[in-house]
Amino acid sequence: MEGDRLEPSVTIKNIERELICPACKELFTHPLILPCQHSICHKCVKEILFTLEDSFTDGGSESSNQSSPRIRIHSPSMDRIDRISRSGRKRNSLTPRATMFPCPGCRHDIDLGERGISGLFRNLTLETIVERYRQAARAATAIMCDFCKPPAQESTKSCMDCSASYCNECFKVYHPWGTVKAQHEYVGPTTNFRPKILMCPEHEMERVNMYCEICRRPVCHLCKLGGSHANHRVTTMSTAYKALKCNGERAKEEAAQNFDKLFDVLQEKRSVALRAIETSKNLRLEKLQTQIEEYQGLLENNGLVGYAQEVLKETDQSCFVQTAKQLHVRIQKATESLKSFRPAAETSFQDFVVDVAKQEEVLGDLSFYSNGLDVPEINEEKSKIYNKAVIGWEYPGKADSADIYVLEYRKLNKDEDSATWEEIEVCSKSKVISDLDNNSSYAFRVRGYKGSICSPWSREVILHTPPAPVFSFLFDDKCGYNSEHLLLNPRRSSVESRAGFPLLLGAERIQVGCYTTLDYIIGDTGIAKGKHFWAFHVEAHSYLVKVGVASSAKIQEWLHNPRDVTSPRYEQDSGHDSGSEDTCFESSQPFTLVTLGMRSFFIPKAPAAPKGSASRILPMPSCIGVCLDYDKGKVGFYDADHMKCLYERQVDCSGIMYPAFALMGGSGIHLEEAITANYLEYQDDI
């Protein structure tokens, strides 16, 4: 394995050796191919030729008659060429006149001929390989930006306060001008971040050098002299460090002892269970062996086996036939007695199956508990389910919040005692959950984690999903909308009737018995199939509100022939015992509606119901829901907070159905807002 790890580096070194010029001992720069097929840098060829030319000039004719010298240049550079230029030579003289030199690689003499260096070809392949090698080497040693999205850019600076490296764009994003981070100290790209000096939060210019044993936090000398820790017991940082380190070791020992106790309990339970199974097995084997011996003795005592063996030895045919019949009768009687045979011991060990499901769940939740981390509580007022579920929680009082939370939820089924918990990690104090089943109940619980310490689970909160998918719409400001009596908000999600105004308009008709009218408004989207649910809030001060559904045919009929349905001649409880006025009132309504108002929910009176029954009046829920089953022709009215059906009736769904509302007097209706991904983002410190 050690050899395998070294092989890549050895290979890289071998490759690098092949990319080094034999003259300058550096990576090739503009390599040229010599006639001997070796390569050499362009500048190195010039340097060698210039050196040879100078040596011929300085050595005179005597040296020129000697054989070609073997010259090895250990560290050549362009200084020689620069020196020649400064000496006054012309530009053309920068081309060496010498054409013969030894190859630095193989030491063979190279004759460049009349063309000299210009006659050599560039080794473009080798040049490309060297350039790629340089890029790979730079990338291997480059410090990349810690915040770029893939692919990461090379960093241009490192922040010593953040202990991170940034490219130019990311540095501007995370260190905006005018903020505290803009004052951070930054240097060139580096991975060597110095340890940050811990400063006192109360005295920003002072370093912490003591540890308060009462508050369990580092403090400076000013905190001890006249600050909030003046009367507290403090110790040096080194002493506190040693104590905390010893406490850590002690905690490890205690945790190991606790786990050893669990192992001992499991080992003891294992031994007891195995001994019980072994004992039961031995007892059953003894009983079965006794039964075998008993039945074997019976067979031997009645001589049936011996008699059968003697019959089989009979050679006379007539005697054999005669005795065989008697043997058959005796065997038949013996087998009939065996039909009632029952084993003396139970062969199954089902009573010894160990059920460890609950124990596994408990062990899965095994964690460190701390008295300093309180149990979070789910806020039922801010938690709700509509098209999605939003769950929010908080800590009682001013307890410190956890670093992270784990939210679990499961569907409650009647057939299953325990469903699997779904787990979500959350960094804030709220979470939006999607893809829940309709017409179902879910249990939610949460716990907090601070490092390796976790709190116990919170109390489970059960919420119910709507009976059908949520239907989204807004109030229609065109079809039948009376802008003089009704007021819509700009988003068309709320409508209010202007208190007293309809009454004043109808005052001139008081003498003929019509004291006011209802102002109708419908949704801007219709329903042609399926099952749908929507919810809304009715203002607590509302005098009279009617809610329900309306068909397109009824809407057209009402638009052409509106009626004052609250006239005394349509009054439900006019005093007559007959139910005829109920039938007349029902047929006169343009829509299928129920009545709300004065903080009450009025269930329509059935024809056979007693007059003035108090059971028809319920407290008005804070949120009301309507569920329309178009295919079955049913509409239901719900307490949307608890998803409880208050009233249901048949409805004629012969056309397109629309959500419908009617208001009278000072009233207001607000459509329930759909839950989005950022719905109710709770802040930790509100």
From TrEMBL:
Keyword annotations: Coiled coil, Cytoplasm, Cytoskeleton, Metal-binding, Repeat, Ubl conjugation pathway, Zinc, Zinc-finger
Annotated localization: Cytoplasm, Cytoskeleton
Domain B30.2/SPRY: 453-684
Biased composition (Basic and acidic residues): 570-579
Region feature Disordered, mapped onto this chain: 565-584
Membership in a protein family: Belongs to the TRIM/RBCC family.
Protein name: E3 ubiquitin-protein ligase TRIM36 isoform X3
Organism name: Apteryx mantelli (North Island brown kiwi)
